[in-house]
Amino acid sequence: MAATGDEAAAMESISKAPVPPTDLNLTPTPTPTPTPEPEPEPEPRREVAANDATENQKAKRPSNNNDGGVETAEEATEPAEPDINELCRDMFDKMAVFLQGELTATCEDYKLLENMNKLTSLKYMEMKDISINISRNLQDLNQKYASLQPYLDQINQIEEQVTALEQAAYKLDTYSKKLEAKFKKLEKR
């Protein structure tokens, strides 16, 4: 059942200028004092329907005060809007969780990078050790080659002598063949 007349005007004035619970006067006042608050944001339709139902119930209640223009604290109460502090706290909590997640992810990335750097450093240390061993082995081989060099020189000299001896043997062989041919010739005569 919808409110009519003075009751509707009273309900409309209540819905247009909400008064926070801290500013409510519990004693009857001749005129309500407007407060310089920003206009409330429009509420979802569901809450408006709930407000209308609550206001209709309030309109049905018998008033203790016979003065129609005076409102009591009971009539001036509205369903509480979502508490801005609670919403801010919720937002900051969620933002903190989000930032904590971001920082945790970044921290994990840096830990992974640190581990990769450590592994790379270890690999380079291993490669350094290997290259030091190779260098040491190369120096050992160079020293062994230097110690073998006199023997290699002797081998080269022997090879040259063998080549010269071989040439002398060929010359001797040809000379002996010629000599044999001359001897055969002289024998036949």
Automatic annotation (TrEMBL):
GO cellular component: BLOC-1 complex; BORC complex; gamma-tubulin complex
GO function term, MF aspect, one: gamma-tubulin binding
Stored InterPro entries: BLOC1_su2
Residues forming coiled coils: none
UniProt region (Disordered), positions on chain: 1-81
GO biological process terms, semicolon-separated: endosomal transport; lysosome localization
Bias-annotated ranges (Acidic residues): 72-81
Family stated for the protein in its record: Belongs to the BLOC1S2 family.
Xref: PANTHER family: BIOGENESIS OF LYSOSOME-RELATED ORGANELLES COMPLEX 1 SUBUNIT 2
Protein name per the record: Biogenesis of lysosome-related organelles complex 1 subunit 2
Species per Swiss-Prot/TrEMBL record: Onychostoma macrolepis
